[in-house]
Amino acid sequence: MSEGHNLPVWILGALLVVAGVGFGLAAGLPLTSASGGTPSAAAPAHLELTIVINPVNGMPQYSPANFTVPTGLVVVTIHDTDSPMNWSGCLCQVRGVVHGVEYLNQTPYAILPSANVAHTFTIPALGLNVLSPGQSTVTFTMDLVNPGAFTWFCMAPCGSDGSSGAPMGVPGYMTGTMTVA
Ligand SMILES: [Cu+2]
Fold first, then answer.
1. Number of H helices and number of E strands within the chain?
2. Taking CA atoms, which of 6, 51, 115, 151 is between 20 and 30 Å from 167?
3. How far is the CA of 118 from the centre of ligand 1 (A)?
4. How far apart (Å, rounded) are the C-alpha atoms in residues 134 and 82?
5. What's the burial of 100, exposed, middle or buried (CB within 10 Å: 0-12/13-18/19+)?
6. Checking DSSP bridges between strand 102-104 and strand 175-180, what pairing results, if any?
7. 45 CA → ligand 1 middle, Å
């Protein structure tokens, strides 16, 4: 006699709801409030970054450049308002994020086409690399285990002088500090 046949219908319904929530998390779908979530897993934190053109000097910059996030799962959204850039030398491989993919306008990619990639969000200490095409919205999830201060930077040659000129390497533009606390 199988125990499964004795499961009340409401338990099966609850299991389906939990599975649905799990799928939503795995697919990177927009998350609603924590209420109604699974009690065993804390709701992920959210971080919103925007890449804008500085109105004074015309250089692209991440805003904010310095920010604090908690340990655990952090869903990051990058709104890139810069122009697309054809970065032919880009390997464009997504690394160090949950499931190994980022979502470009909600489509998952493990490797992005290099044709439009304008910037990257790269944290070598975490083995993390995410690509940001111009005029796009990118979403990915970090699973942060350890607290600390982590330098992030952009690897794309987005400067006025390719990979050597500003804003590359200028704090507050294409590099900054992510504090995990
Ligand atoms: Cu850049």
1. 1, 11
2. 115
3. 6
4. 5
5. middle
6. unpaired
7. 25
Q: What is the pTM of this model?
A: 0.76
CA geometry: angle 57, 113, 86, nearest 5 deg = 35
- 117 C-alpha to center of ligand 1: Å? 9
Domain spanning 44-180: CATH superfamily: Cupredoxins -  blue copper proteins (2.60.40.420)
25 C-alpha to ligand 1 centroid (Å): 29
**How remote is the CA of residue 51 from the centroid of ligand 1, in Å?**
9
Query: Ligand 1 centre from 121 Cα, in Å?
Result: 8
Q: What single-letter DSSP state applies at residue 42?
A: P
Ligand 1 centroid from CA 142, angstroms: 20
What's the distance, CA 120 to chain centroid? 11
- Yes or no: say if 45 and 69 are a contact pair by the CB < 8 Å rule: yes
Q: Is 83 exposed, middle or buried (0-12, 13-18, 19+ CB in 10 A)?
A: exposed
- The pLDDT tens digits of the residues spanning 31-44 come to 444 444 445 567 99
- Interval between CA 87 and ligand 1 midpoint (Å): 11
Q: What is the pLDDT of residues 111-169, one digit of tens each?
A: 998 888 999 999 999 999 999 999 999 999 999 999 999 999 999 998 866 666 778 88
